[in-house]
Amino acid sequence: MIRACLAATSAILGLTSAIACAPARRPPSTETGATPTVTTQAGDGDLRIAELRSCALDSGETIEGCRVAYRTFGKLDATRSNVVLFPTWFTGTTKTLAGIVPGELVDTKRFFLVLVDALGNGFSSGPSSSRAQPRLRFPKFTIHDMVESQRRLLREVLGVQRVHTVMGISMGGMQAYEWAVSHPDEVERIVPIVGTPQLTTQDLLLWNAELHLLEGSTAYAGGAYAEPRPKIPALQELHWLMLTTPAHRNAETSRDAFPAWSATIANDTAFDWNDWHRQLEAMLAHDVARGAGGDLAAAAGRVKAKGLVIVAEQAGW
Amino acid sequence: MIRACLAATSAILGLTSAIACAPARRPPSTETGATPTVTTQAGDGDLRIAELRSCALDSGETIEGCRVAYRTFGKLDATRSNVVLFPTWFTGTTKTLAGIVPGELVDTKRFFLVLVDALGNGFSSGPSSSRAQPRLRFPKFTIHDMVESQRRLLREVLGVQRVHTVMGISMGGMQAYEWAVSHPDEVERIVPIVGTPQLTTQDLLLWNAELHLLEGSTAYAGGAYAEPRPKIPALQELHWLMLTTPAHRNAETSRDAFPAWSATIANDTAFDWNDWHRQLEAMLAHDVARGAGGDLAAAAGRVKAKGLVIVAEQAGW
């Protein structure tokens, strides 16, 4: 499912929701131990998997059989200098991004666009896709860990050392900021859209509310729910409550239409709850200034990239 | 606890939060079968209980041993024409209202102010205060049922047939609208503050999220939780998320202060969860136009009261 799409389409991008809001599906059977795919010439938008073997994490733990899913569009130029990296938002997938980014947000005639699935989104390694570390045995990871996995994709699989632009929406914007601070010599530009370098108090309140809702949910069962996944209506309702402005919600969905719309939300189990859990934790730990004692100015001092920062005029987070 | 206080104090009333935001406590031992109190001369702000025996509800069910708690300030004039009725907001109590209304919002030298505890708030009849119908055996009630219980308090105990003004904040504003539509000849003025005559889609989404969170909560245990009441952090966090604007939250609580502030919220069990449940249902069913096929204009056509409607410039609900 696409969590930021309404906020993005209504407030930021001017795209129609019909384009953006298709629900995500489980990945095709990519869990077959496929050999690494060399894709430097590919730009067809197909789902590809980079096999990174193991990924060391900020926590000291390791993702075993670490994989990063991605899609490319356009052509890498001769100097490998036209890469635009676009990671997914919270609960987002490149399947959805493929419908709104190429040719719309990024000119794929000029740029080699790499859409990348963030860790824990059901396509890249995470609780729902790992055989070795399933469910909450999958270690906690950070936004920085997502960035490091993407950097290895670029260097080890695509042969790219430096990117023209990292851009993304919401949690994708967090990754863009993290890229600029962690690898200042490898990022020329960032375009974070409704992202943040450091969570506000309201952000912390929102993501803690979702985390504690999951943890306290009978259906979630501490992550040990049976398949098919149970419905957790309150989590979806909370998420949608904060996804758009009240004015947008009221304009989009009449009181009469509310029961049917609400049921659609309540029935949505497309995104795995343990993946949701681990991506929440990644956002909650996000702070590009954590290495500078929380000093954002010091962290900003490291950045060499130019930035185009896009924020929402109204947002609940 | 006072749920609307920050929204009200920051956006509407200009009061300081120090005045308004004291947490509610359980009522003193009023469950002793006290005889009806005649209070037409009283105006001391003490908690009083009107014994209404039984209250017939919209559902067809009955509240047994029905009681309405209230406090009065000022003096009823000779023509009994100076009554200002001020019911509580969602999860609110007259104990809290007593700190912000008399002399601040209402001139008690001129008016006979009646603060009244809405059904299901722990002081008036509700799941936590009923011996005959405890917990979820307490029947569902509506905003209209609250109004009818208050009308009986006025007529049967205070000897008042007509009120100068009904005013209230949030769910208190819903009651003010309901009064004006249900009893047009008995209400001269209404002052609903961040109230609504009919829930918006965003309102429905918020209150459904809280209701489903409770229903799906392991700690809530379908209403059969043991005492002392368990913590339900996610519910408090969700509630506070929507209580103020993001800008207010971020200004009031720094990132560094968040853990301590968040813990205070998470530990708050002052308001009974079954009371919370039943008051949520009352709000979810609220619609002053329900008797007019949802036609707000038709409902408004019944109203004879003058209205001063106060809304928030920014609100998440």
Tell me what you see in this structure.
Chain A is an alpha/beta fold and 317 residues long. Chain A has one domain (5-307): 3-Layer(aba) Sandwich (Rossmann fold), CATH 3.40.50.1820. Helices cover 34% and strands 14% of the residues of chain A. Chain A has eleven helices and seven strands. Chain A has a seven-stranded mixed sheet with strand order 1-2-4-3-5-6-7, sandwiched between helices. In chain A, α6 (201-215) runs antiparallel to α10 and α7 packs across α9 (258-266). Chains A and B meet through α6, α7, α8 and α9 of A and α6, α7, α8 and α9 of B.
Give the secondary structure arrangement, pairings included.
The structure is a homodimer of 317-residue chains.
Chain A: H1 5-13, H2 17-20, E1 48-56, E2 62-73, E3 83-87, H3 94-100, E4 112-116, H4 143-157, E5 165-169, H5 171-182, E6 189-193, H6 201-215, H7 233-243, H8 246-252, H9 258-266, H10 273-284, H11 296-302, E7 306-307
Parallel strand pairs in A: 3-4, 3-5, 5-6, 6-7
Antiparallel strand pairs in A: 1-2, 2-4
Helix pairs in contact in A: 4-5, 6-7, 6-10, 7-9
Residue runs with pLDDT of under 50 for 5 or more positions of chain A = 1-40
Give the termini distance of chain A in whole angstroms.
Answer: 19 Å
| Beta-strand fraction estimate of chain A | 5-15%
Oligomeric form: homodimer
Tell the overall outline of chain A: globular
Supply database-style keywords.
homodimer; 317 residues; Rossmann fold; 7-stranded mixed sheet
Give a nutshell description of this structure.
The structure is a homodimer of 317-residue chains. The first copy, chain A, is an alpha/beta fold and 317 residues long. Chain A has 11 helices and 7 strands.
